[in-house]
Amino acid sequence: MEQSPASNPSAAKILDVLFAFSMANPHPTALEVANAAGINRTTAHRLLQILEANRIVRRRPGQSSRYELSARVLQLSETFLHQLDDLRSISLSYLTTLRDRTGETAALHLRQGDSRVGVVQVESYHQLRRTYSDLGKRVPLYLGAPSLAMLAFLPQEQIDRYVPQNGQPWPDIEFRDAVELFGWLADIREKGFAVSRAHRLAGIVSIAAPIRSRAGDVIAAINVTGPEARFTPQTIAGMAEAVVHAACEISERIGYSTHGTVPSTSRSNRTDR
């Protein structure tokens, strides 16, 4: 039986190590990798050695205490870009259907480590509408319905690392601390979709559901979004059903079996209580 990284701690830690390489710090030391991945230095060394043996990372020339990604990662990048094109192509018709059914802008967002990135949208026909002018911009995984729809289904140890820690400022949104956020995430897992209000823009509501890979990992989310005045409890229920259905169909198209996993959308999400 295929095991996903979410249920395989070693695989999850390897991924966390890879995500420690970033534009802000492309050549981290083992200690910096350990801190970024939330693991101890000994484990970081061991995992870096595994990645080095498989030519995924290498020692930085002239700075042996630092690591960098190797050229072999380009092979993964090419595969990812091909899959991204496939996911975009597959999702586009569903986004168009969502826009036509709900009347609101529909979009696809991809998870990238502790962030998500909007990659494609189909805009509403309404004159007053939400338009993503920042496609490609990284957004934290605790901000907005597309982020929350992905964050809710990650392993708890990853969730703990992807939310603001003690002393870090919380955005002025609907939950005030990690305890409230964890309650939201439990609610999202039960319903299968997330609803956010004014997380990024005042007066804007978003409804999102996760997309899963063949292995069952949450890799993306789709959403509909628009002005709060058009998002009543009644319209939210219908929109949520449409979004969840589209997300499940996209997941099936890329190989995930959703048989028996489609949640009920008969009750409103926590944000509407």
TrEMBL record:
GO molecular function, one term: DNA binding
UniProt keyword DNA-binding, yes or no: yes
PANTHER family named in the record: HELIX-TURN-HELIX TRANSCRIPTIONAL REGULATOR, ICLR FAMILY (PTHR30136), HTH-TYPE TRANSCRIPTIONAL REGULATOR RV1719 (PTHR30136:SF35)
Residue span, HTH iclR-type domain: 8-71
Top-level taxonomy: Bacteria, Bacillati, Actinomycetota, Actinomycetes, Micrococcales
Gene Ontology biological-process annotations: negative regulation of DNA-templated transcription
DNA-binding among keywords: yes
Domain named IclR-ED: residues: 72-256
A Pfam family assignment: HTH_IclR
InterPro entries: GAF-like_dom_sf, HTH_MetabolicPath_Reg, Tscrpt_reg_IclR_C, Tscrpt_reg_IclR_N, WH-like_DNA-bd_sf, WH_DNA-bd_sf
Annotated source species: Compostimonas suwonensis
Protein name: IclR family acetate operon transcriptional repressor
Entry-linked Gene3D superfamilies: 3.30.450.40, Winged helix-like DNA-binding domain superfamily/Winged helix DNA-binding domain
Keywords: DNA-binding, Transcription, Transcription regulation
